[in-house]
Amino acid sequence: MIVTGEEVGRWVVEKAGGDGNYLYAAIGEIKDGKLIAGVVYDNFTKSSICIHSRIDEPKLVSREFYWAVFNYPFNQLKVTRLTGIVKTSNEKAISLNEKLGFKREALLRKYFPNDDAIIYVMWPEDCRFLKLGKRYAK
């Protein structure tokens, strides 16, 4: 079941760090009554938005969730880029981002305490999940 709201945002921020008081939007997936995946969006500029995610068990996440994650910024908000920031030490997040189709754009040295950051970008024309719209759009 795909869900939205503050509960999802706080769940993501709990693991990702940061301040959950500025949340713009959040999308999550629940299985067996438990949140298994969630994303939070912020820093909306009308052409770009940032995404932060928490996916504890990627193998359990549905294609419908990924469609919803990319449908919101690209089809509803009409942004031209989706930006993600990942710690260079977070190998699981790096691997998942690249499997999803995000491209490395830049390295920010000393962005996090004791760590650098990789800036990832997803362009709508590169997002394979948008093609699932006919199946999941309601």
Short structural description:
Helix content is 28%, strand content 38%. The protein has four helices and seven strands.
What does this structure look like?
The chain is an alpha+beta fold and 138 residues long. The protein has one domain (2-136): Gcn5-related N-acetyltransferase (GNAT) (Aminopeptidase, 3-Layer(aba) Sandwich), CATH 3.40.630.30. It has four helices and seven strands; from the N terminus they run βαβββαβαββα. It has helices at residues 6-16, 63-76, 91-100, 133-136; strands spanning 2-4, 25-31, 34-42, 48-55, 81-87, 103-112, 115-122. The protein has a seven-stranded mixed sheet, with helices on both faces. A hairpin with a 2-residue loop joins strand 2 (25-31) and strand 3 (34-42). The longest helix is centred in the middle third of the chain and has 14 residues, at 63-76. The two termini are 14 Å apart.
Keywords:
alpha+beta, Aminopeptidase, seven-stranded mixed sheet, 138 residues
Give the arrangement of secondary structure elements:
Blueprint: E1 2-4, H1 6-16, E2 25-31, E3 34-42, E4 48-55, H2 63-76, E5 81-87, H3 91-100, E6 103-112, E7 115-122, H4 133-136
Parallel strand pairs: 4-5
Antiparallel strand pairs: 1-2, 2-3, 3-4, 5-7, 6-7
